[in-house]
From TrEMBL:
It comes from the Bacteria. It holds the Pfam family CTP_transf_1. It is found in: Cell membrane. It comes from Leyella lascolaii. GO terms for molecular function: phosphatidate cytidylyltransferase activity. This is Phosphatidate cytidylyltransferase. The chain crosses the membrane at residues 12-45, 65-93, 114-135, 147-167, 188-206, 226-246. Belongs to the CDS family.
Length: 289
C-alpha cells in the first residue's frame, strides 16, 4: 500500500471518528460539556505550546489551560442555571494572577507574555465557551437544553468545507487570499456558501414542519436559518484565515499532530472559533435569546 493511500485511510478514519464524537456529544448536555471542555483544554494547551516557541515569550501553560477550562465550565454552569454569576470570580482571580505573576518572573518582555496569555483566553477559551449560550435557552425561567442550533454550526462548517473543496477543485481560478491561504479560491468559497444555504434551508423546513406540513413552533423561520448559515460561512472562513495567518506567522504547516491526518486542535476548530460567537451575536440580534 502506498504512503499516499495510507494517509488517505488515516485521514478518513480520523475524520469519521471526529464527526461521530461531535455529533454524539450534542445528544445530551453532559456529553456536550465534557467534550468541549476537553476541546478547550487541549486547544489552549496546544496554542500556548506554540507561542512559547517564540523568542522572549514564556506563557504559563498549566494555569492558562486550567483557566480556559474553568471558564468553559463556568459559562456552562451559568447558562444552564446551575450556578450563579459568582462562579466567574475564580476565573477573574486567575487572570489577575497571570498579570501579577510577571512581576516575579524577571521576564525580558512581560508585555509579550501578557499579550499571548490573554490571547489564549480571547482567541480560544472564550469563543468555545459561547457554545453553551447556543445550547441552553431560558423559557420563562426554565432552562432547556437544545442540541440543534450548536450542532448546526458544525454541520454548516463541514458543508462549507465540502462545498469549497469540490467547487474549488472543479472551478477554482481566482485566489481568495493568496498572501495567507493560496489554496482557497473565490469559486470554492461561493460553492461552499451555496451548499450551506441549501443545508440551512432544509434544516429550517424540517424544524418548522412535520410530515403533515403542520408547524412545530420552531425557534427560527427558514429565512432566519438561512441567515445564520450565511453568518457561519462568512465568519467560519475568516476564522480559517485567521488561523492560517497565525501558522504562517509561526512558520508552521500544522498546529499539531493530535489528530492523525488532520493536524492539531486549532486546525480542526479554527473556523468555529469565529463562527460560534458570531452565531450568538446573530441570534441575539434576532432577539431569540
Amino acid at each position: 500500500m502506498s504512503e499516499k493511500m495510507k494517509n488517505l485511510i488515516t485521514r478518513s478514519i480520523t475524520g469519521v471518528l471526529f464527526v461521530a464524537i461531535i455529533v454524539t456529544c450534542f445528544m445530551c448536555p453532559e456529553g456536550m460539556i465534557a467534550v468541549f471542555a476537553l476541546v478547550t483544554g487541549l486547544t489552549v494547551w496546544e496554542y500556548t505550546g506554540l507561542v512559547n516557541r517564540i523568542d522572549g515569550v514564556t506563557v504559563n501553560r498549566f494555569i492558562s489551560t486550567a483557566a480556559g477550562v474553568y471558564l468553559f465550565f463556568a459559562v456552562a454552569g451559568f447558562c444552564s442555571g446551575i450556578t450563579p454569576s459568582a462562579v466567574f470570580i475564580p476565573y477573574l482571580l486567575s487572570v489577575i494572577y497571570l498579570f501579577i505573576s510577571e512581576l516575579y518572573t524577571e521576564s525580558k518582555n512581560a508585555i509579550n507574555n501578557w499579550a499571548y496569555t490573554m490571547l489564549s483566553q480571547m482567541y480560544v477559551a472564550l469563543p468555545l465557551s459561547t457554545i453553551n449560550i447556543l445550547a441552553f435557552r431560558d423559557y420563562g425561567g426554565q432552562v432547556v437544553y437544545g442540541y440543534l442550533i450548536p450542532l448546526s454550526i458544525f454541520v454548516f462548517l463541514w458543508a462549507n468545507d465540502t462545498g469549497a473543496y469540490c467547487f474549488g477543485s472543479l472551478f477554482g481560478r481566482h485566489k481568495l487570499f493568496p498572501r495567507i491561504s493560496p489554496g482557497k479560491t473565490w469559486e470554492g468559497s461561493v460553492g461552499g456558501g451555496l451548499l450551506v444555504l441549501a443545508v440551512a434551508a432544509v434544516i429550517g423546513y424540517v424544524e418548522n414542519h412535520n410530515a403533515d406540513g403542520q408547524t412545530l413552533g420552531a425557534v427560527m423561520s427558514v429565512s432566519e436559518w438561512i441567515g445564520m448559515g450565511l453568518v457561519v460561512v462568512l465568519f467560519g472562513t475568516w476564522g480559517d484565515l485567521v488561523e492560517s495567518l497565525f501558522k504562517r506567522t509561526m512558520g508552521i504547516k500544522d498546529s499539531g499532530n493530535i489528530l492523525p491526518g488532520h493536524g492539531g486542535m486549532l486546525d480542526r476548530f479554527d473556523s468555529s472559533l469565529m463562527a460560534i460567537p458570531a452565531a450568538v451575536v446573530y441570534l441575539y440580534t434576532l432577539t431569540l435569546f
